[in-house]
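S.,

Sequence below, as promised.
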Amino acid sequence: MARARLQSERGAAAVEFALVLPLLLLLVFGIVEFGRAFQVQATLAQAAREGARVMAVQNNATAARAAVQAATTSLTTPLAASQIVITPTSCTTAAGNATVTLRYRQVFMTGWFGAGVDLTGRGVMRCNG
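The prediction came back faster than expected:
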């Protein structure tokens, strides 16, 4: 009698596992996708600060773009020049600010949470700072 009870409970455990597995996978992949997006956002913020610093100190938009691209080598898709916005294009007055804005599309691996998310990094530094 006890043996029959254990065998019937094995089937119940398999059914329970089959019901819980999709939720568990959704949770795990959600954590992975959020972690990747968080890492990319931190990379964009750091790269934008670095680009703003180079623009403020060197007054060279080309060098600022190069600094941004060097700081974003860990991204899956490299930043294109159109994704890097530097304003103003010349940092000649000490009263102005150099601003670097980066736009990046983070594509999700699984597609369970949508196609992806648009992320932005922004750095501001006083000119000739």
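Strands lie at 84-87, 97-107, 116-126.

Coffee later?
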